[in-house]
Please model this.
Amino acid sequence: MLRLHLVLLLSFTVLHTSLAQSDPSGKSAVTRTYAITNATVITKPGSELKDATVVIRDGLIVGVGQNQTIPSDAEVIDAAGLFVYPAFIDGLANTGAKRPENLPRPQNLFTPDPPNDYAGITPENSVLSQLDVTSNTIGNIRKIGFAISHTAPYGRMLPGSGSLILLKDAEHMDELVLAKDVALYAQFVGAPGAYPGNILGIMAKWRNLYRNAVQHKDHVALYAENPSGLPRPVNDRVSLAFHPVIDQSKAVMFDVSSMLDVRRAMRLQNDLGFKLMVAGVEQAWDIMDELKETGTPIFLSMDLPDAPKENKDDDKTDEVKALEAKRAEAYKTYVSQAGMLQEAGIKFGFSTKGTSNSKIKKNLMTMIENGLSEDAALAALTTNPASMLGIDNVTGTVEAGKMANVLVTTAPYFSKNSEVKMMFVDGDRHDYVVKEKKSKDASEKDAKPSQATVDNSDPIAGEWSYALITPGGEQNGKLKFTKQGEKYEGVMTFEDGTPDTDLNNINFREGVLTFDVELDAGGQAIQLVVEGKVEEKSMEGKASASFAGQSFQLDINANKDGK
Amino acid sequence: MKIKNILTIVFALFSTVVLAQVPKGDLLIKGGTVLTVTNGALENTDVLVRNGKISKIGKGLRAPRGVETVDATGKFVMPGIIDAHSHIAGSAINEGTSQVTSEVSMEDVVNPLDVSIYRALAGGVTSIHLMHGSANVIGGQNETLKLRYGFTNPDDLRFEGAPRTIKFALGENPTRGGRARGIQPQSRMGVENMLRNSFTQAVEYKKKWDAYKANKSARKVAPEYDLRLQTLVDIMNGDVLVHCHSYRADEIYMLLKVFSDFNIPKLTFQHANEAYKVAPELAAFGANASVFADWWAYKLEVYYSTAYNAAILHNAGVNTSINSDSGELIRHLFHEAAKTQKYGDLTDDQALAMITLNPAKQLGIDDRVGSIEVGKDADIAIFDSHPLSVYAVPLMTFVDGVKYFDKSEDRKDVRLYINPEAAIEDVMIYDRHEDHRCLEDAFLLTMEDLFSNKK
Model:
């Protein structure tokens, strides 16, 4: 039975490959040579060419300038009025990675040191083992202007190594890999109900693992020199994974958002001596001296807090007014920190991890309104991450000899109305439909249903009333979903006054809706991962909540509003 | 070693030193009643502070040029209060997932943004012992802090040079965790067994490493490193002071025996509500006690208690302190100390020592703080009346001669980091007069009423 299945599968693969070569689908490009003409080309931050041509051939930029000869086999793209930029590089995300199944609870969970896999200690893993070429996250982030992502694996304290991934359509993940296992990825995420459960245990575990890895490395070296009379070094996959970190040929990228967590990562670095990068940073304004002194590469989170809304009551107290003013000041600090780093001369990149795609451009604009220069913003998206990730000799600028990672926009990128018209990733061209400017022809407008109206045919888009059954009683509120292209976006509201919270990783497949949401509980994050079966207009599901290293399951039900 | 590496190391050392600089103040506190703790109350006396240290105590001192003077006429000047048991300023408190976690340390989770730090300063507190929780038998290492509120770097709050300490826990808390998980310890017997097993393992661990270090061969392989067992070895070497959560006399006595068997010299019992029953034994061992003034009956093992505990221990020769274990109680530890006069007739110096010099001794920092003496750190609190009076109000608090609290300049909102997405709620002071009282006392007695001492 199994054998038959295998034979079928194999024959299918062979057939598929042979088909791909002749490509009856007509999807593959006629030529891989392009000439983008008459464009305004921003070759790198602060350097602009007018009426220039960019020639791309077989994945490389072969010419940039005003007097370029257009090759005879080139497809000419008239880019009059368009703008060409180096495509962006994402410092940290999970783009293309698939969250692995939760491990079953091990029998010996309550031993002082539970199995490494359960404890989240798998530094020997590579994100490549989680990559899924069909993941729509690749195309979705490309559409915003990104060509390369430093993709990290899902997991807990030491999930494995991240790799640099080209955001292209591929048959096999090998085609995506620009650089494998570039940095060891680390987080302050504890194991549910087991050691290390929180930051206390994680810091200690790090020290213990590292010290033993150093000893292991010495042992291996001694044994390689002359094994006679020495005990055999154990093939310890965790220690082995640390060897390149110890000799500093590989950096550790710590995913740390708060100022205190950044300092904790720096503290480990200071105690142990590895090469450190920090990513996903949301609070950097108080650590600028340390960043400058240590030269730690930093990738700021592209996520920004929502602008606070003031209470509109006329009779609000002075106390409320003062609290609102202080909150507004705090908001200002968050949105102006990119500008502050620029001012302090600290080179930084960006990380899209945890940021909803629809907010990336908007947040960039907010940072620019609050002190970040457009050149510095572009550098943070291109040349800075390229040099911090060690790929500045191959990409990050629009220059002859570099990879053809190029973004074409309808207006200067950092303007409100700019749209991505075209992306080249590794020389592959992707076109996007650009929204028409406000239509003059009213009848045409009437013919199409406007985007604002809810598409009733969609099973998810719209408003849902939910009930989350907690030990403390039922929590109610709304789930609001909208569909953006093929992707859902959503927000969760609460009747108890908790501020609205964005939903992440929304997926609807074969009648099952999944999403997750991070709630703030007095400074600690509660993560809710919801999975529900949708039938008609109702959903029944489970929400697994994890909080401070503990996790438990709650029931959640929702009904779609309206007729 | 390559020159580049050497330079990197030198630079790293240099930068650490630069970062660890905290401000030190110069100050003359004039004309107050100075409660020295070690040398009685000195009326109408001045205290001169230079570069964060007390440099002179006397009458008629003059402020050197540029040194600010604080007029303390009619006021009371005491050493900053030290809380030997606190859980404020920590981002996490328990690594309770395992029963022995001696490798974890509160120094990794100091949270300088906690507004409780400011509230404690407003109660005259200058140092706290940030402790790991009591979820497991051998918990984590603690961190002694100076309350330099306003700095965002946890390193700036560390009490430089304070000895390492660690939290142990006996009784209901760790056995509750054991029973919940179906592992040892589920009873007080299991707790003792776990302690003895752990130290026995540590002895074996030490033997392995001693043999490795004694081996002169260049071709030797190091034994596995275990920060958990290494910390236990450090405890046995006397490098780490043990602070043990405990209530009952039998378990306190048990730990004395365990520590005697393993030759562990330094021990402070925290809470220790029944310590008065074994006071002579504690004194003979040289153990310390850090207790509540009059708080008990919050769980079964804490019913057998007395408000005379601190005084009995003190009179038996046990170095005793009074602690808060709370972000609220920490603001009026001077009231808690005063209770030892009501219950036990301690002198002013003895009562004040309970919240200054005695906890300093328990934390191994009494050469630096805990009394007003020349050469000590200028960690000082100024009160409007005698701090052992129920009417006492703290006015100013100094750490290293730098003012971190001043009642006359108190701001309403002292938070350092604010979540811009948080909702703003009206702050309400709970007002009991609005309660409906028509059915008061109409119901049967509750457990709370039965054990209440209000009537």
The longest helix of chain A spans residues 199-225.
